[in-house]
Amino acid sequence: MERWLAITGLLLTLVLGWTLWDASEQEWTRYQEAYYRQAVRLAQKGSQRDWASSLRTEIRQIQLNGHTTVERCVTCHLGYDNPAFKNFAAPLRTHSELLQSHAAERFGCAVCHGGEGRAVTTLEAHGQGQVAAKPLLRGKYMQAACYNCHGTNTLPPQATAGVVRGRQLVNSYFCLACHKINGEGGEEGPDLSQVGSHRSWTWIYAHTVRPQGVVSGSTMPVFLLSRDEIEDITIYLSTLLDNRDRLRYLPLLAKRVVGEDPAQGWVATQRREAPARHDAGSPLFSYDGKKLFHGAGCYICHTIDMTGGEVGPSLTYIGRKRNSDNLTRLLKDPDEILPGGKMPQLYLNDLQISALVDYLSWLR
Amino acid sequence: MIDVVAVYKKVIGATLLAAQLPGRFYRSVFRGGYPTTVRQQLATVVNNLLLHVHPTRLYNRSLEPQTTFGLGLICFYLFIIEWITGIFLMFYYEPSTGAAYGRILDLNYTITFGRVMRNLHRWAAEAMVVGVALHMCRVFYTGAYKPPREFNWVLGVSLLVLTLALSFTGYLLPWDQLSFWAVTVGTNIVSYAPVLGPKLRYVLLGGDTVGSDALLRFYTLHVIAVPAVTSLLINYHIWRVVKDGGLAHPSENRGADGEPVGQRSDSVITTFPKVVYLELLVFLVLMIGLMVASLLFNAPLEEEANPLTPSNPSKAPWYFLGLQELVGYSAFWGGVGVPTILMIFLLVLPYVDRRQVGVGVWFARERMIIIGVWTLILIGIVVTTALGIYFRGPNWNFYWPWENWPGPH
């Protein structure tokens, strides 16, 4: 009995030692030590050297919104405000000059970069850990963050070019035939009005490339888009946030927004930026009925000569069934001809409708 | 002139006195030396606050692992571990909807030992639900609830309910999607009770939906109210074990003529040292297992609760999934009928099944009917719970565990 007590007691001691090691082994301490070494080396004046050698190894954080938002990114990204670290690699490198107009102490990091500000390991802070956080926005995807606060009016065009192009693409590929955005669009697919809050940009990207790879059994077809198009659509969809996300940084922005009531100022800027209804007269389409049929996404639901979807009826012989007048009215307002049906309102203009009706009437 | 000899003597005296201090302190706590005679060993148990809940001596048979598997003791240890880790978590936790989730993230990410402590708290809680259920099955299958232990069985049933209450109230506190929707579903099950159901849900949540009042209520219940009642009942429960004559023993069985049957000769040993050491050993093994589990596996945590986007499927905590499965067929039977019948069955059982047969014996042949009934109920609970855990996907549809659920993943 005493022997077993001794053995298990020893084992428990080992496990406690493991716990201690687990608690003391911290990735961020290595970055801090590297930073302090470099800071002392780069110091040119005595006062700089004194400052650098007075630094302690400690978790650093920025608190915002009356301390409810805590971001510890600066625990590792120590050189963000130190111009001497311009040529270093991440995480010590100096932040770009955008920091001058976006003071980290006022805006924090995650409002632009995403990620999980409370975490202090690369994996978790960059949004790839156990908890489903948002992965860091990188490269051109940063445009989504710029757009969320600034819209398109106050920035140089290239700063939000991806958002604008993505919105055009979503309209011109008739995503709204199946998806609803801000109350407008079809019922076939999920509402995308807040997709940027519910899905990460990496998810949206993978889903746009091949929906079935992310959502098993998805009925959304694979669109053969170019890489640029997928990226732009992803950027645009990432800007569609729910109110909670929109309002999260409102207290920070309030100081910049015109008007007495910050909330009203915010709403005003949002209204100005509300996406225009999709441009039905987009020159992307020549009004060739057959091309339009595929461009407007009709084939997603309807089959012609064995190709197409099975959500709606086959249109192979539709010309025999409906005359052109009936087809015109149906395309203008599906609910009038097929009340309660699945056929979505496509918001086509008259020229597009007549081109489509010409094509459909020919199918007999 | 200095008297060298006198100073020398004083120094020696002071040194000797100092050397004796630890021994004196030890003897002031534990009177007498290490107990070697039976008389001293009996006195050790009686005179020690921690040990005196034990009987001074017991049947050798009580120490064999298959008699109890130490399940009651393990449940007690788990409760103590919950208490200690819970106090640690309380240092950091804040029961408000704006701060709770951030505090949990801090525990996971930055607070020293925070992750391990939270994992320990979680895994010990899960183990306690399982442990209490197994303990109850052991008591049933060995007929240990029969007179004179009927009331201790009732106390045990109360402790089962309290354990579930502790676990369920703690479930909400991380304020993530998982906990929010699990508690929404769990309290919906409550509301299926006729007349009182919706009121009860309202009182429990402090409103019609899970919000900041619900979080505060669940927190208060979880850290003060339920643990206080549970601690009292655990004391009572353990005290009654000794007062009711110790562990159930085959010598209590009576034949049809009322005469004792079965084995009577069984050696008796003193509680100290063997039982005390064995209990310490069980604690060490349990602690090693829990610590390793907590270092290797993180307690579940999803993104912050969002009342606007329900998770699909929304599942109650796993120990209520049997009920949720039944609610899928009939709200009344799942929410009220079956739990009420089960509770009445458990509470009435020791007062109806009083025959002194099969006491202290696993699966006694004479008790086959009631053992069959119990086993059927047990299988029902396990099957419906497993269905709920592993076979239910979006919209509570049936899916094989290896099937992919449709929809986002």
Account of the 3D structure:
The complex is a heterodimer of chains A (364) and B (409). Chain A is mostly helical and 364 residues long. Chain A has 3 domains: 26-136, no CATH class; 140-273, Cytochrome c-like domain (Cytochrome Bc1 Complex, Chain D, domain 2); 289-362, Cytochrome c-like domain (Cytochrome Bc1 Complex, Chain D, domain 2). In chain A, 49% of the residues lie in helices and 4% in strands. Chain A has 22 helices and 7 strands. Chain A has helices spanning 2-24, 27-42, 46-53, 98-101, 104-107, 110-113, 122-125, 142-150, 161-172, 195-198, 201-209, 211-214, 227-238, 243-248, 250-254, 262-273, 289-295, 298-301, 318-321, 324-332, 334-337, 350-362; strands at 62-64, 69-71, 180-181, 184-185, 215-216, 303-304, 307-308. In chain A, helix 2 packs antiparallel against helix 3 and helix 11 (201-209) packs across helix 13 (227-238). The termini of chain A are far apart. Chain B is mainly α. Chain B has one domain: Cytochrome Bc1 Complex, Chain C (Up-down Bundle). Chain B has 14 helices and 3 strands. Chain B has helices at residues 4-29, 38-47, 65-68, 71-92, 100-109, 114-141, 150-171, 177-190, 196-205, 212-243, 274-296, 321-329, 331-352, 368-390; strands at residues 57-59, 268-270, 407-408. A two-stranded antiparallel ribbon of chain B has the order 1-2. In chain B, helix 6 (114-141) runs antiparallel to helix 7, helix 7 packs antiparallel against helix 10 and helix 12 packs across helix 13 (331-352). The longest helix of chain B has 32 residues, at 212-243. The mean pLDDT of chain B is 91. At the A-B interface, helix 1 and strand 5 of A face helix 5, helix 11 and strand 3 of B. Strand 5 (215-216) of chain A pairs antiparallel with strand 3 (407-408) of chain B.
